[in-house]
Design a protein that fits this description.
By secondary structure, the protein is an alpha/beta fold. The protein has two domains: about 130 residues, no CATH class; about 300 residues, Alkaline Phosphatase, subunit A, CATH 3.40.720. It contains eleven helices and 16 strands. The strands form four sheets. An eight-stranded mixed β-sheet has the order 6-5-7-3-8-11-4-12, with helices on both faces. A four-stranded antiparallel β-sheet has the order 13-14-15-16, covered by helices on one side. It has a two-stranded antiparallel sheet with strand order 1-2. α5 runs parallel beside α6. The radius of gyration is 22 Å and the shape is globular. The two termini are about 30 Å apart.
Amino acid sequence: MIKRSRKAKIATILVLLGVVVSGGLYFKKNEQKTIQTAFFQESTTQYGPTDPSALCNDCNVLLLVADTLRADYLSSYGYSQKTSPNIDQLANEGFIFRNNYANIPFTPPSHWSIMTGWYPDHHKLLIPSADESSPSLQLPDNMPLLPLIMKSYDYSTAGFVSSPSVGFLADYFDKFIEFDEQNDPSRLTGFRKTTNASLDWLEKNKDEKFFLFIHFWDPHSPYEPISKHDVFKSTQLDQLSIKAAKYAGEIQYMDSKIGELLNEIKKLELEKDTLILFTSDHGENFGEYPCDDFTWNSGPCEDHSVSVLDPEIKIPLIIKIPGMNAKKIESISQSVDLLPTILDLVGIPQTQPTDGSSLLDLIGGDENENRFAYSIIPKNLVESNIYTSGLRWKEWKLIRVTWIDDKTHQNKFILRLHNTTLGEKENFLAKEPDLVKKLLQQIEVLEAETPLQGLREENLDDETIKMLKSLGYL
């Protein structure tokens, strides 16, 4: 949990229909530290011995992560132009999770959440040190780490990444190479070093049981697709629309490299023995929504690490399991679900607690409307005194933005409730008071807990309920 300077009770100001309403809404934190599994959702993660009947027992695992890739710019997620033929083919052969969310829209902590199954405010590994003389990372006790787990089950592990922003994972793989695509001159003619290294490693290790992690810097800014893929033109002349068209070109180039890797898996006859997962660490804003609630800078949201709106945190997740038919899954999933899902699929027992929950129930055909996704932007990530959290449940998303006053501890809260099927402009805060209470309560639970012991439910205290009533929410 990110520690915020405040007393046990903090003053809250709500936003109602876009107008800041004064009031003393207070929350108390229980100091007990336990695992989060939500009062309306119990974890489906299974514990026990290695399971030889797992859906992909002892399979190789290929984990592909594209940087800064929002779901709705892929053809398979509804984009109107052909940005992603190879990813689309993977989706046609696998399970496509249509409501998948990043837990933080920033590369380093998002990758930590993928690799540990822990929320960012639990693992606290937010920004790696640039100082090479600094001590090695001290990982939290009892934190699972996917490459180490795979290694302990005789997997050969390798990671090939296109940016130093993911280089902190180097110590946990048998083989790890970090490239710097952003500053490599070959970027302008087509950066291939990560792909080539991955293809070479696959060829040399095709007879081994492997866990291979590949990170692509594309389509991260600057948006400079090579000419072959610079084919998308904006019908509008504003800079954000032009950037979005270049972004689409970068996606298409990244997709071509995904195609090479998938073709290599087939060429080496590994397809029947390899579990393939494709996802992203976060998305990107192109001015779809105003950003005034999230940052000191007024105007439209751009880039990432500024909000928990869908353009930044709704990301693709596709899982191809050998021998299983393709399926579209509408239930909500999140990045922290990946670790327990991978372990379940290959039959490895999970012996350490996670915030995430295995997606095996969804893969098996049981849609679960009570799943949720939790995303944050911690204090000091971009703004020194703003903390943002969001909870997506069913079609709803509650966003709470805390503007922190370290001197007075009278912190201003902005609340937004959106029906995501309608976008994220209309605020339903006044129309859905019971839902606001439920989701706000769960955000409080999530912010208060760390993954150590088990399920805990927490009720709003009498003072909070009284204040909600006085403001007309109950």
